[in-house]
Amino acid sequence: xxxxxxxxxxxxxxxxxxxxxxxxxxxxxxxxxxxxxxxxxxxxxxxxxxxxxxxxxxxxxxxxxxxxxxxxxxxxxxxxxxxxxxxxxxxxxxxxxxxxxxxxxxxxxxxxxxxxxxxxxxxxxxxxxxxxxxxxxxxxxxxxxxxxxxxxxxxxxxxxxxxxxxxxxxxxxxxxxxxxxxxxxxxxxxxxxxxxxxxxxxxxxxxxxxxx
Length: 212
Known about the structure:
Blueprint: H1 11-26, H2 31-42, H3 46-57, H4 62-73, H5 82-102, H6 114-193, E1 197-201, E2 207-211
Antiparallel strand pairs: 1-2
């Protein structure tokens, strides 16, 4: 029969606990199933794993839990800008190398320190939030552009109507000038012909000479 451990938890065990719980959340499984899996691997009870998760480990992985829940629900995660993500990964790898170099030869080496994991997840959370803000700003700008295009189309319609009215007024003005010119000519002809004839306009606006 396997002996159940009751000693203190190590950073590697906390990391394993977090990885398994997050995987079960993404897969749509339960935390109880995760605790049982970790318990079997670490020779601890599921209750002990659950207590350790709720009392110490969970608060360190709030952002990772939210991301895992979104992946479980099938929500489309916002993809961080690639240059920023590469910079974070480079910084993270640099810290991992420093951790490995600082360890003594006789100590058991872990690939990633617990503090580095927390810092990395915090950086990822910040990147995701910034990407979400950029997405919201982009959507707001799209709406603003749509409103401006609508306003532009309305202004173009008004300009077209004003242009049409201007042409009508211009035509009426030209017709008025032409009538006034004909009237002037009629007066001149009346004076030249004397009193025997008079001139009048017909319905088409043309001059017509008639006897008095």
